[in-house]
Specification:
Blueprint lengths: L3 E8 L3 E11 L4 E11 L12 E5 L12 E5 L7 H19 L5 E5 L5 E6 L2 E2 L8 H4 L9 E10 L8 E5 L2 E2 L1 E3 L2 E3 L1 E5 L8 E4 L7 E3 L3 E11 L12 E9 L5
Length: 250
């Protein structure tokens, strides 16, 4: 029988598993807690194939009414800040202008107070299209522009659907998600910018009872507040757990 066990899991996924043979035998009053979690903030936000398209139409000179172009830009799934999108568009537009002799401009920034965006663009923003990025920017799905001065969005940005990250462990019980029982043993939200190191080391450990005493496998998974699996774009994730008897200091 084990009175105290420290278990470490490392992998390039948000689902980490380990099998034990022989199985780990623990006491009936044993409980489990998260000791530490380390990874990088690469959790994808709301940018996905349903809302990653931005179309901009050039405005032709008056004497050449048919001389216009519509360019479509497509962001890959990923973890973005507004300035990342701004930098992406600057690079793409530079290439477009060089290839087609156009002079399109586009810039976007976010107000850190109310999280609304400000867009400046000398073309027509075709927001009323399939898979439009407009809702992410806080705009309605209707064509607008040009905006020769910064134009404020209708709503706050909708750049992240993850409100909380839960650490789930299949051998733990005693937590609830609303009215439903859950295997969650810890919750957090990364406070740093995209790409920064995430280190979670609880000062006051919260222990949860185990649902078995013969442990032949353990699975740890990160999910969002709705229990939807989340990705980390193959960044290394390390999770350390501690099992001990109830009332024990070690």
């Amino acid at each position: 029988m084990h009175e105290s066990i420290t278990l470490s899991f490392t992998g390039n996924s948000t689902v980490l598993s380990a099998n034990y043979f022989p199985s780990l035998n623990v006491y009936g009053d044993s409980e489990i807690a998260l000791l530490s979690l380390q990874t990088f903030n690469s959790f994808p936000n709301i940018i996905n194939p349903t809302n990653n398209r931005l179309k901009i139409e050039t405005i032709p000179p008056k004497r050449k009414k048919d001389d216009y172009h519509v360019f479509e830009f497509c962001l890959e799934d990923g973890c973005y800040e507004i300035e990342d999108i701004n930098n992406y568009m600057a690079k793409e537009l530079s290439q477009v202008n060089n290839d087609h002799g156009t002079h399109l401009t586009f810039s976007i920034r976010m107000d850190p107070v109310d999280f609304r965006t400000y867009i400046k663009c000398n073309g027509i923003l075709r927001f009323n299209t399939s898979f439009s990025i407009a809702p992410v920017f806080g705009y309605r799905k209707k064509d607008c522009g040009p905006f020769h001065e910064e134009h404020r969005s209708d709503k706050a940005t909708n750049l992240n659907t993850i409100n909380s990250i839960k650490v789930m462990c299949n051998i733990a019980h005693g937590s609830f998600n609303n009215q439903l029982q859950s295997h969650s043993i810890y919750e957090f939200f990364p406070s740093g910018r995209t790409g920064t190191k995430v280190v979670q080391s609880p000062v006051n450990l919260i222990y949860y009872r185990l649902n078995k005493i013969d442990i032949n496998s353990i699975t740890v998974q990160l999910v969002d507040q709705n229990n939807n699996p989340i990705d980390n774009f193959n960044e290394t994730l390390t999770v350390v757990l501690h099992i001990k008897r109830h009332g024990s200091d070690h």
